[in-house]
């Protein structure tokens, strides 16, 4: 036999059981998005490279999967271009299209392209795979699904509130206990202003973000090594060591940032979101966390991240407010806020905590054993009746040995098996075997259906 | 403003309304597949080119979208290779991966790769996009979904029977009246044998297939032009002009093919499928149609095709039996039979016949008008309660002019609007406006929910 065929590294096949679990995840998220008035769109897997390039930084450009032009892709390319050392430049000549790298840029493109058809605010969700030529490693794939929801065309903080309610509802439905962390880019900007190092905001937040991992002393050392004065680092101390309830934290921060208009605006935004949500009674905790520093290149207001409480894993959902989604495509002034559920990590968490509902796997409920042509002919109308009643059933297609047919039932984890021989045919009945208990009963088709459906 | 961004030709964005309709199609097909014991799998968008190349003929190889290798894709390629005229050969050096062209080859690869985990017969379905660098035209796209179901590892004709039941059930659920056409590759082989032109089977079937379009005389002329003797063409006449019921057609064919063992086998197969199905009482007609000649390169037994009766459009579903799915990957002896629903054409048929159920579009059911911060704060817990009861609702995020908010409700086709001002807040109620009738009533939240849910 030839070598077993494989699939590209970093990609996956999904088996029936995995698919059932993934569908459970997607259907749950989809259902909650719909409950909040979000509408689904889909965009093509391939976008023009001109849409994608330059949107994810230099590193991102390299991680785009580019699609070779069809036909004579060399036509019009001079020999000296082929010899060039800059393969990125050549790639752009050989390829016009690339696979989408996330759902945000295609969404921005969608909004601009369809602006005349859209009513703002536009609340869309999108659940589709994305592709990145990242080095594959545990939990990181080259093809993976994103589940994004965004509201664009509204500055209202009620959108932030709704997104947090969505997060809370989704994880409650999953049965995963989480902590929802909240920060605000404006607070971080205020902090940088306050210590007179507005250009160092990224360094500062990166250092603060390491607090859990490396401890306060090392954070301070890193801040100094990054060029902050002793005085600046000293002024940061109450922020780095911030603790207590959200109200207490906000009170401290109001003091610390009293002179930063931007900082105070960020605090007011967080306060509104936290107060409004606390009146609504979320089932999961929300925590103001100033060390949360994701997406600083594009988030401009609230930033969120969700951590699972009972499993050691990175963030399983995240998002934030951005001010200028579509500016890159020449349509300024469209503010938005969005979240993205990490389906792959949620899949792992549900597995580890064994939280999938039993009915997730919608496999065959009833297998008819096949004893031959006459018996099969008897079974077919009974099966049609069962399906009419919503019973997922099948007949073993060949009249193989009983043992083989029962192995098949076991391998597919079929809970009920129907056995029809001469006796059953004469009586107009079937023998139903409960595979869990081993119990067998001679029943009419109606009785059989009732037992399976209950 | 910069040029509006676009998408690659032959690809599409799907708007919320289109998505809702597509989900209705996919969910219906998915539900019926599950009812017959089929299980869903997914495979990666990218396959190794070695898996895809050579599986779709020379033309197919050209239509594969190939993905440029990441990093330095020129490394190891000699300058003279770059100058070569054969771009296909160079493409294979620049690209290791390609986008899947159909779901059949990835499925064959899946079966071979996972053979040790699978229990045969394996009944799988798969609903995913495929990509082809075809010239785009009306109804033909470069990215489109296929909805395939196959049973592999069983020769039993009960599988053919079940697939026809699935087709019948799906189109009954859609409300599309169809004719299911059946043929058998073995009958076609028998015909070719009978007239002593076994090598001309493709020419013959292509010519016969044109009967509807060009008429009998032209078919005969084409057959002669193709090298058939007058005698051979004369012997084909009863077949080309075959008519009557399925039983009558089969009777004629039994005579005509009396000396072809293969031909008689094909007739017996069709007879079994038709007889078994007629005992089950399909809701759509099945018709033996010898001019049906699809997939002759790979189908070896029954061949099916579905035509919509009330819309002029090509085949909307098709499939057949193949003998050696996985031989290309070194695993011989795996027979199978499958069908594929044409989602894009079904989408068009449902649109033309206006058959989408009203509840297909699961948009917002209830919009809360936003009169300001206090009113919004009052609305939020009412909305939480409504969502708890399954009502899809949202609040207009900004306290914009009433007219703007009502336009938004109209644009999203929201059936109910809740209006909350001082009066409602004082009474603990909401004013519910039915957007279709214009009727307004002052209600408690519970009353409001009951009206919307009924």
TrEMBL record, chains A, B:
Catalytic activity: tRNA(His) + L-histidine + ATP = L-histidyl-tRNA(His) + AMP + diphosphate + H(+)
Family assignment from sequence similarity: Belongs to the class-II aminoacyl-tRNA synthetase family.
Underlying gene: hisS
EC number(s) recorded for this UniProt protein: 6.1.1.21
A Pfam family per the record: tRNA-synt_His
Matching HAMAP family: His_tRNA_synth
Keywords: Aminoacyl-tRNA synthetase, ATP-binding, Cytoplasm, Ligase, Nucleotide-binding, Protein biosynthesis
Taxonomic lineage of the native organism: Bacteria, Pseudomonadati, Bacteroidota, Bacteroidia, Bacteroidales
Binding-site residues for L-histidine, renumbered to this chain: 102-104, 132, 146, 150, 294, 298-299
Keyword Transport: no
InterPro entries attached to this UniProt entry: aa-tRNA-synth_II, aa-tRNA-synth_II/BPL/LPL, Anticodon-bd, Anticodon-bd_dom_sf, His-tRNA-ligase, HisRS-like_core, HisRS/HisZ, HisRS_anticodon
Places the protein is found: Cytoplasm
GO BP annotations, alphabetical order: histidyl-tRNA aminoacylation
PROSITE patterns linked to this entry: AA_TRNA_LIGASE_II
SUPFAM superfamilies, per the entry: Class II aaRS ABD-related, Class II aaRS and biotin synthetases
Complex formation: Homodimer.
Protein name, entry field: Histidine--tRNA ligase
Principal place of residence: cytoplasm
UniProt domain Aminoacyl-transfer RNA synthetases class-II family profile: residue ranges: 1-381
GO CC field: cytoplasm
GO molecular function: ATP binding; histidine-tRNA ligase activity
């Amino acid at each position: 036999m030839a070598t077993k065929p494989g699939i590209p590294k970093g990609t996956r096949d999904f088996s029936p059981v995995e698919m059932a679990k993934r569908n459970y995840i997607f259907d749950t998220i989809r259902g909650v998005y719909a409950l909040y008035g979000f509408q689904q769109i889909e965009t093509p897997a391939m976008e023009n490279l001109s849409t994608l390039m330059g949107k994810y930084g230099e590193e991102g450009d390299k991680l785009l999967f580019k699609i070779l032009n069809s036909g004579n892709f060399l036509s019009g390319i001079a020999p000296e271009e082929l010899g060039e050392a800059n393969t990125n430049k050549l790639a752009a000549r050989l390829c016009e299209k690339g696979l989408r790298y996330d759902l945000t840029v295609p969404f921005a493109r969608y909004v601009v392209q369809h602006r005349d058809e859209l009513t703002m605010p536009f609340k869309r969700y999108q659940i589709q795979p994305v592709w990145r030529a990242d080095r594959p490693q545990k939990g990181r794939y080259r093809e993976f699904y994103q589940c994004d929801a965004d509201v664009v065309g509204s500055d209202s903080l009620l959108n932030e509130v709704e997104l947090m309610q969505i997060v809370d509802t989704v994880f409650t439905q999953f049965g995963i206990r989480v902590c929802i962390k909240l920060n605000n880019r404006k607070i971080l900007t205020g902090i940088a202003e306050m210590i007179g190092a507005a250009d160092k905001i990224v360094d500062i937040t990166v250092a603060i973000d390491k607090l859990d991992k490396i401890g306060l002393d090392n954070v301070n050392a890193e801040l100094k090594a990054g060029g902050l004065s002793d005085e600046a680092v000293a002024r940061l101390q109450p922020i780095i060591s911030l603790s207590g309830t959200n109200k207490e934290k906000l009170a401290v921060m109001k003091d610390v940032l009293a002179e930063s208009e931007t900082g105070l605006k960020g605090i007011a935004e967080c306060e509104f979101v936290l107060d409004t949500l606390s009146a609504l009674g979320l089932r999961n905790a929300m925590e103001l966390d100033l060390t949360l520093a994701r997406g600083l290149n594009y988030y401009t207001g609230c930033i969120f991240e969700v951590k699972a409480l009972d499993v050691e894993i990175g963030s399983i959902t995240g998002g934030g407010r951005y001010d200028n989604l579509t500016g890159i495509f020449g349509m300024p002034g469209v503010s938005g806020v969005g979240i993205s559920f990490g389906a792959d990590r949620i899949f792992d968490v549900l597995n580890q905590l064994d939280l999938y509902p039993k009915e997730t796997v919608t496999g065959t409920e009833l297998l008819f054993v096949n004893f031959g042509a006459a018996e099969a002919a008897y079974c077919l109308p009974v099966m049609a009746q069962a399906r009419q009643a919503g019973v997922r059933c099948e007949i073993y297609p060949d009249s193989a040995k009983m043992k083989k047919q029962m192995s098949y039932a076991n391998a597919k984890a079929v809970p009920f098996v129907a056995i029809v021989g001469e006796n059953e045919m004469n009586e107009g009945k079937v023998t139903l075997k409960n595979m869990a208990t081993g119990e067998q009963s001679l029943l009419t088709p109606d009785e059989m259906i009732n037992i399976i459906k209950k």
